[in-house]
């Protein structure tokens, strides 16, 4: 009898063990499955980030402001081989700025920098480059302002007639979106047709100076440009003056926060 009871107990334990094992296996399988799903889910954002393209920063763009064109050379000195002549108004990409290349050409101080123009690479003198597109030949002040305006910055132009009428004179004012005196002067020179012989050094000079037009005609009373500086040698204004017996003209360049204001005043007696 004891043997029979022992046999029945042993069989019961075996049946219970066999019944529990599949449950444990199933539970482990589900747990593994959930862990796998969790890992896949946590990886999705990472994969999405890897698929996102990273845009490279755009190279700065400059414009040639030399009316006769600008030489693109193979090296950083003026004896380097000339590759081609960049035309006035040409757009170039700035690639690099080599050290120890500062020089002064025709009163303009600048450096030789590496640029790219329509696939051609070389070095140019940046004293004849501007960040703003230069005025085109015969372009009006209003037309130029409209061309360089952007959605973020509209270039303002105001015109005020002389109280006696526009035949007696006009005051024209434009705000250039730059704080660079050299750039502003070169644009002003083209836009308001200042004498080409007037080339003040706006970088090296430390004191105020007045430069007369070397090509001034005999009947002209004044044809000169004044560069005014403060006690720290900072430029405060640049004023061009042209004076005849019955006609006066002045073009004044001043800085106003982040812009440079150019004002031309003409009046006849």
In terms of topology, how is this protein built?
Elements lengths: L1 H50 L9 E4 L5 E4 L8 E5 L4 E6 L6 E3 L2 E3 L1 E6 L2 E6 L3 E2 L10 H8 L8 E5 L7 E8 L4 H11 L17 E4 L9 E8 L5 E9 L3 E10 L2 E10 L1
Antiparallel strand pairs: 1-4, 1-9, 2-3, 4-7, 5-6, 7-8, 10-11, 11-16, 12-13, 13-14, 14-15, 15-16
What attributes characterize this protein structure?
269 residues, SH3 type barrels, 2 domains, 3 helices, 16 strands, 26% helix, 35% strand, globular
Structure description:
The chain has 269 residues and is an alpha+beta fold. It folds into two domains: 61-130, Roll (SH3 type barrels), CATH 2.30.30; 141-268, Protein Transport Mog1p, Chain A. The chain is 26% helix and 35% strand. The chain has three helices and 16 strands. The chain has a seven-stranded antiparallel beta sheet, with helices on one face. Strands 8-7-4-1-9 form a five-stranded antiparallel beta sheet. A two-stranded antiparallel ribbon has the order 2-3. A hairpin with a 2-residue loop joins strand 15 and strand 16 (259-268). The relative contact order is 0.09. Residues 1-56 have low confidence and may be disordered.
